[in-house]
Design a protein that fits this description.
The complex is a heterodimer. Chain A is α+β, with helices and mostly antiparallel strands. In chain A, about 30% of the residues lie in helices and about 20% in strands. Chain A is built from 17 helices and 21 strands. The relative contact order of chain A is 0.13. Chain B has a two-stranded antiparallel sheet with strand order 1-2. In chain B, helix 6 crosses helix 9 (about 195-230). Classes of the chains: A alpha+beta, B mainly alpha. Chains A and B meet through helix 3, strand 10, helix 8 and helix 14 of A and helix 2, helix 3, helix 5, helix 7 and helix 9 of B. Chain B: InterPro entries: BPD_transp_1_N, MetI-like, MetI-like_sf. Chain B: It is a multi-pass membrane protein. Chain B: One of its GO terms (cellular component) is plasma membrane. Chain B: Belongs to the binding-protein-dependent transport system permease family.
Chain lengths: ~550, ~325
Amino acid sequence: MYWRGRVVACSLLLFPGISWHDKGEREWDAARGMTQNHRETDMVSRRNVLLSAVGVLTTSGGAFGQGRAREIRVGVSQDALTLDPANHRNRETQTVIRNIHDGLLTRDADMRIQPEIAESWRQIDARTYEFRLRSGVRFHSGDVLTADDIKFTFDRLAKNNAMSGQTSPRKGLLGPLEDTVVVDERTVRMVLGEPWPILPAMIPFQEVVNRRQLERVGQDGMQTRPDGCGPFRLTEWRRGEAVILERFAEYYGGSTEIPVAGPAQIDRAIFRIVPENSARIAALLAGELDIISELPASAMRQVEASRNAQVMKVNGTRSFFVALNLAKKPLDDVRVRRALNHALDKGAIISRILNNTATPLRGVMSPDALGFNADLPEYGHDLARARALLAEAGVAPGTELVIDTTAALKEIAEAIAALLSRTGLRVRAQVWEGAVLNPMWQNAERRRDRDMYLTSWGNGALDPSDIMVPTLRTGGRGNAAGFSNAEVDRLLDAAETEAEQAKRADMYKRAQAIVTEQAPWIFLWLPQDIYGVARRVQNWRPQADSRINLHRVRVA
Amino acid sequence: MTASRLLERLLQTLPVLFGVSLIVFLMITLTPGDPVEIMLADSRATPEQAAQLRADLGLDRPLPQRFLVFLGNALTGDFGISFFHRRPVRDVIAERLPATIELTLAAILLAIAVAIPLGVIAAVKRDTWLDRALTALSLFGVSLPGFWFGLLLILLFAVQLGVFPVGGRTDFDLEVARVTGFLLIDSVIAGRPDAFLAALRHLALPAITLGLPTAALLTRVVRSAMAEVLTSDYVLFAEAKGLSRRRVLLRHALKNALIPVVTVAAIETGSLLGGNMIVETVFGWPGLGRLVVESIFARNYPLVQAAVLLYAVTYVMLNFTADLLYTALNPKVRL
């Protein structure tokens, strides 16, 4: 009885309001002059208290989905690393930040570039862009946004050591941006060191901060105390658990090009971190979450079958491919590379493993991107032709090839290996840790003995410059195949500085044709991003850049 | 036990901690994979920027120097800056640690509360169907993969019945001033029974998931310890003396049977503290375990080193506490 008495005594101490008595029946009873009958009824009532305590513990949880009529909960797999828009290179972090901070420009759900804080923009010459700002834009603190904030934001991003002594990890996303000049209170100009036509496509990756906030909270404070001018302001950041945002009533309304402009239509937005896929799905089905990202294709049917949720898909921006080590035999022979492209039955993998949630690619680019070449020839699935090409190149049956990949793509790598092995080659998959594998394949010396690398490259800007230059230009930082073609290099370089978009697009189309013909990769597919969305969520759809913008969302 | 003996025991732990520090340092720094390359992956950083970052993080210095710097700073409680949070490791860990401790303590208390009665019953009813059933059940419990069991609990209690939340530590509309970081304690300090209950409700499923295998293991330990004690002479004597069965069991037998139980419980507490990554991941519990796993993949050296050192200190201290408990349970035991 002793320990039980302790527990009860403790709970009495903890919550004097809750009348629950137990310990030392005899003493208590004596003190209260209790008879045997009394004690029995007391036992009963105590049992009731116990039962009702259990009841409180369980049933009050039944109302999870209720009482949050104007609230949206988004389930994401990772916490934000920081809330400082200048100090990260992380997609999940930006997804959260983008609801607190707006940018000069943004993208709508169809990935068109739209003015946001800027009212309009124009290109003055090959190296100068001018942005006209909206009036009446306020930060959450109440400060009015001016051209000085734009200059502060972009200087902090693009200049060396401008982020309190450090250089922003986002600097690279602004290319040759040299200076941001304030023309008047509502006009700024961006000056580039060299022509860079994709600047407008890259601006939506950056969010505007309040220069006065840095003075108020310092560099460390910038990480956790954002003062944005977006539709939501930070209520609380529970590290590792959730970022809780509330509606900012004085929001200027965002882009006028995306209906319906105005303050947010929900009172509260919560980004909850649920790392485990199954748990995220369970939370959606239980009505605890409204939008979940990274829904596995295998779970689509389960979500569709539920009463309160549905599946939403969008073409992603990430091209998947198997980079072939051009420096190694027999992959240095273009016939072998073409044979591998012919040998792979992409359709089988897309339908059986990816549940038809990917678009096959004939080349590098997404069909949604600028300069997509729709006329590329296809390496159709043709085993006989593949075998013939291998024989012609003198590759003996039984030759061993290894596909390197990470654990996340193991299943696909094994399927590719099995399908390629039908040519008579012996292909197998080897799983590595990303921390080891990626740097290895980025270094010509370290990848010398490797054969193939199943990987992908994101192209959030939907511009060839953002994917073809790093992965296919000679010496590009993501050129795992070691591809080097003088004509491709010339076209890519010329397109980098060509101001006229139609001409640029044409150059990229020609470069794509050469790449597909030379086949430095086995061209794979562009996966769709899959979301589970509660049916009560309205006026929201996923967008290709993986942002989850809650600016316009409503709940039924 | 004298104070000097206590101090001596404490000093004996120092070489252990030094050894752990060295091993962890070597293991993580010698594992292939470069934090700078990971941090700059997919970015357009130039080699000069990479070199600058390497210097900023102190990674350009020779290994022995790095170890000495780590050790020296660790003695003053400074574990450096977490590479990807860009904040002091100490702060990052302090934010996450209470959640982990709260979950671990809940799990171990739950395990003990379940294991002692079941173990005693199994020992008393030895070789009956009840004993065999409990033994089978505990074997089942020990073999349950936490990952699978946690998801099963979520599906049943959160999705189907809707009586417990899927994850997280508390409701989003409840805000309790952070004093200790332990939600149960903080809600008591704030005088908020609603927050206390919400925290308890969120704690239930993860604590059951984490505690069940330990409960099963402890049940087996209690049973075998109890079974052995029950055959000893003094128990026979106590019974012969005419003491009630209950008194013999609880006062005489259980107290002596608890020594191995305390040992196992202490070790289990240590391993639960360091081994709850899976449960934390399944339930979205914002604890240290998940952070450490993420840090290992990102080669976030300072955080991993600090966390492992912390685990080691806890382990050593728990064993030390178990030793102290022996002397309380059995005065014949000397440290």
